[in-house]
Amino acid sequence: MNTATPLDTLSPDTHDQVWASLPWYLNGTLDSTEHELVQQHLKVCIPCRNEMATQQHLQQSLQIPATNEFGEAVQFSRLMNRIHATKPDMPTRIRPQKRPFWAQPWPQIAAIAAMLVAIFTAPINSLLTPAETIYQTLTASTPKPVVQQTGDIRVIFSSTVDAQRKQLLLSAIDGQVVHPADANGIHVVQVNSQGRATADEIDLALATLRDDPQVIFAEPITVPGLDSGS
Amino acid sequence: MELTTAISPVSQCPPSGREDISTVDDAVLISRVIEQDERAFAALYERYAVRLRRFVVRMTGTMGSADEVINDVMYVVWNKAATFRTGGKVSTWIFGIAHNKALKSLAKELRIHNPNIKQSLDTVDLVDGDNAYHRLETEGWLSAGMAALSPQHRATLELTYYHNMSCAEVAQVMDCNESTVKTRMFYARKKLRAALPDLAGDTASAGGSK
Q1: Which of A82, A225, B67, B81 has the most CB atoms around it within 10 Å of its CB?
Q2: What is the pLDDT of residue A214?
Q3: Residue in A20, A64, A83 nearest the CB of B142
Q4: Could you tell me the pLDDT band of residue B141, with boundaries at 50, 70 and 90?
Q5: What is the ipTM of this complex?
């Protein structure tokens, strides 16, 4: 539909519009109204006609293939190997649900049972066996140093990890970055943002992080402590 | 590039009935890719790989990383096919991914050669002796004139003149609005005219009311 009058066709605004639209006039993707407008304008505008000739020349030049042949089948095989070898992108890591007592694995139930037996039988044992005096000499070994976990983890992410993936990983371990990456790329991540993480929670977080290909390093931060029995 | 059936990606996948998959619509192929149909994916790969390669090479100015970029693009297509919006054009979706991956690849290359680079790729002027870029220039360019353009300008020209996309489609691929596409095209034309006076032959000097 041609809505442009001859006067419109010659106006500077129309000229600018046509000038800008010439590439799409040439590739045939303008809608019918714009196409008509360009056609009408070209009849009366010599600069636009010259520009169209220039663009036509450019368009034709660009049809020359710019790439060499490449091993499409080989590249496709490589891609399929990659697809088969890798897990789906962005796996959703969900913290395992705590199972009820009766659904725990047998080794865990056995360990809990042994612990309960030990707790309840300890007072009886102490009544039956006389207390032993513990002698220590100066050369005796010093109290055994132990380490205590702070609830924080040092993490180094792969250089290719993106922010979204990093955030997914952090939310999977209920963690938050408390110190951003230092010069060596080490982040300090606090596990369990609601409070101090338990050893189990830290172990779970470490396992989750270490299992992810985008994590290069994950180790708990520990501080020296003393054996509680000393 | 025509591939013989014997070495084409489709031939690497088991046939599914008597269907000629080469005639199946792109959108149908995508819906099958969502269901992990490797033959449909192979057909899509065969249909797009060469075009994508050309686009990536043209845009980045190097053939070095083109295969890697295409591998990444099609990997995304395989994994994210479900995110394709029905009703849109498959070609603009795939080229949009390619545009994004090519920009990332180019940015990576530029950072390797010049770690201090802070400009965005849209504004990197590649004409005035950006040595980092010139190292990326390899054989296969259509002409020296194209090297005078930024990657975004080259992508605009390529999508319009080779892939015959409308202004709206180019905008969709490049994730910008149509006026930005027209502006990029305007500057691409202007720079090309300056870099390639022979492009327009005798008409070059007369074509400049802009």
Answers
A1: B81
A2: 78
A3: A64
A4: very low
A5: 0.73
pLDDT band, residue B134 (cuts 50/70/90)? very low
Residue spans of alpha helices (H) in A67-105? 72-85
Whether residue B209 lies inside any domain: the answer is: no
In terms of pLDDT, which residue wins out, B27 or A151? B27
Contact B167 A24 (CB under 8 A): yes
Residues A78, B199: C-beta atoms closer than 8 Å: no
Residues 6+ apart with CB under 8 A from B144: B195, B196
**Which residues in chain A have their CB less than 8 angstroms from residue B76's CB?**
89
CATH, residue B139: 1.10.1740.10
**Residue B201 included in any domain:** no
CA distance B108 to chain A (A): 11
Residue ranges of domains in chain A, CATH in brackets: 6-61 (no CATH), 145-230 (3.30.70.80)
pLDDT (mean) for B88-106? 93
Please give the Cα distance from A37 to A44 (Å, whole number). Answer: 11
Q: How many distinct structural domains can be found in chain B?
A: 1
Tell me: the pLDDT tens digits for B160-201? Answer: 999 999 999 999 999 999 999 999 999 999 888 877 666 655
CB pairs under 8 A between A and B: 137
Per DSSP, which regions of chain A are E strands?
Answer: 145-157, 175-179, 186-191, 215-226
Note the Cα A179 to chain centre separation in Å. 18
Residue A19: name the closest of B28, B194, B207, B97 by CA. Answer: B207
Residue B36 lies in a domain: yes
Decide if B205 is inside a domain.
Answer: no
Q: What is the DSSP pairing of strand A215-226 with strand A186-191?
A: unpaired
Q: Which domain holds residue B110?
A: 8-194
